[in-house]
Amino acid sequence: MSGASSSFHLLDERIQRFIWAEGWESLRDAQEQSIPLLINADRDVIVAAATAAGKTEAAFLPALTHLLQSDEPRLIVYISPLKALINDQFGRLDKLCEQLDIPVWPWHGDIGATSKTKFLKQRHGVLLITPESLEALLCNRGTSIAAVFQMTAFFVVDELHAFIGSERGKQLQSLMHRIENVLRRKVPRVGLSATLGDMGLAAEFLRPGHRIGVSMVVSASAGSELKILVKGYEEPLVVRQGGEEEAPEPATPGLIAAHMYKALRSSNNLVFPNSRREVERYTNLLNGLCERNKVPQEFWPHHGSLSKEIRAETEAALKQKEVPATAICTNTLELGIDIGAVKSVVQIGPPPSVASLRQRLGRSGRRKGEPAILRGYCIEDAIDVNSGFGTRLRLGLVQTVAMISLLLEGWFEPPVTHGAHLSTLVQQMLSAIAQNGGATIGQLYALLCATGTPFEGTTKEDFMSLVRHLGTKELLVQDSSGLLLHGPLGEKFVNHYTFYAAFASDEEFRLVAGTRTLGTLPVSQMLSIGQRILFAGKTWIVEMVDEPQKVIFVKRASGGAPPLFSGGSGRVHTKVRQRMRELLDSTDKVVFVDEVAQRFLEEARFNFQSLNLASERLLDQGHELFVVTWLGDAANEALACFMNQRGFSAAPSGPGIEVVKGGHTIDSILDALLDAALVEQPSASELLEGARNLEREKWDWALPPELLKKAYASLNLDIQAAKTWVTSNFSGN
Hints:
Layout: H1 13-21, H2 29-38, E1 44-48, H3 55-69, E2 75-79, H4 83-100, E3 104-107, H5 113-122, E4 125-129, H6 131-140, H7 145-148, E5 152-157, H8 160-163, H9 167-183, E6 189-193, H10 199-206, E7 214-218, E8 226-235, H11 252-264, E9 269-272, H12 276-292, E10 299-302, H13 308-319, E11 326-329, E12 344-348, H14 354-361, E13 372-381, H15 389-392, H16 395-408, H17 422-436, H18 441-448, H19 460-472, E14 476-478, E15 484-486, H20 488-494, E16 509-513, E17 516-521, E18 532-535, E19 538-546, E20 551-556, H21 574-584, H22 595-610, E21 618-620, E22 624-628, H23 633-645, E23 649-653, E24 656-660, H24 666-678, H25 684-687, H26 705-716, H27 719-730
Parallel strand pairs: 1-6, 1-7, 2-4, 2-5, 3-4, 5-6, 8-13, 9-11, 9-12, 10-11, 12-13, 16-20
Antiparallel strand pairs: 14-15, 16-17, 18-19, 19-20, 21-22, 22-24, 23-24
């Protein structure tokens, strides 16, 4: 190794000896590139490399060398999105660091007070911590923060992509900024990620306002062989008996479970069915097959509603090499918890995003010489005369094929970095006040919203409006000297352990018809009164939305084609929808689908041509007009807002928007669309007038209505794309 590697000689001799003892044949590409950049702790660096490409070592080998060669004790602060990932990294680092005489300190909610007290006395080595625990440190030890982090040489952020564009990401930016503000110096930041769609956006996230100064390490993956098979399953038509209310249990999950049972047994796999309810369904079906065949259980559930003990059982089962195990999971197993290599990844239905699919697939094919394997299962309803647009175009299958084709080309969604995240600003204001024992309005604005800070772009007028509103909510009070302090409610929140998380736990809305609860539904877009929802095989009209109680009151809809909107499993990007349109307008054979899925695709293409969708943008469905855009959800939602603002009832629906005709003609709907595209862009307040379900983030309830709409629009509406689409498609009419 020493002869071929220029970076190996830069490492401390003790680390070199460890590498030799471990039998490494060579340093990985990411490590070769990262070591000279990080060893002097004088710059920000992003390391982007495939799963299992040695990113952790790419950061820690040079960072630990820096610690060993420093004249005084130094500290590496490693920040992880998951406690389980911290536990994994502790196991990986402890062996090396014990030989180097460098202490490693895991710090999260499950770590005892004794270990934390020891760290606070020593304050050097490697601190492994979550953003929530870091938040708690700043809130509860405000006066000693300078001493706690005085020796910090690096912030290392693992799974960087998991933070970008989220509330936790804004919180993390703010926490690092606040520590640097106390230290009065910049601390080099290191971002580690396997999935980064845009390195420039990632650099801007890592060091807001200074992306040019961030060094990039992009390690080309050797690229293991990839095997893909997508199987189609048709859910048969069911004729309900008169007065039958409940939708019957679908038949196809049992068939899919039977196929998975044969294909996955005796190996380790990950199965992603897109919702907690489906995780439970497939785990039950698969373990039922184990029981009937009198074989040991091999299928284990893993999702956020399960206790940490049950999740730990699943993780432990996957790590055992002697006994095979398959996890049926949500995105809780997407990130880098070390569960060992899995033989295959299974996706049931379309994945939430191409980036998510890429992250999931990175779990497979990690053993030398083994291919990565992706199995897809797509369920489509049988078609009859009453079938709607989505069924006729087989949109679930087409979206899956589109996402896989984009994955094979190396494309995935860029992170959404333009969100205002004013909810997290509320939390950070309360936290900063706790840290400093109070703050003036000017101090808070300078700390959090000025140029180069995490919430840059928040105007002084909006900030003042927010401060005043937080006063009416009893979250803040101002004393006679002008100092902002916690109000009665603010004090209560900040002193509760749930305060430290910037995000709310996932919640689903209950659907209620009259006095009867129909079930629960995840909702990822705005709702409006009069909007139609598909649930349990029936169409419902939204009558009222009780946001505090998370309840949608509905009544049965009469007539009209079934809507495409039926909840949310991820927001779809315009690039995906455009690829779907290309697939439908093509005659090319897709090589990775089975005969049934190929038949679905042929049916979809036939119906695409029959409806003349290569050129037609308006589909008259009787009660409704469907405007076919092939845009992403953010642009479609903006279009629906344009129409609602003009007195129509419209909602985003798959690859377009659905407009209730009522007494309107198609020409008048088209005129309204054109008018919306040509007039000056309305404010978020005007655009979202009457919209429900805008409270998505944890502290959104504390925002004044105008700022809530502004925050929602910044994250969820692509107004320019919507206007451009209308003018390019209809301006000549």
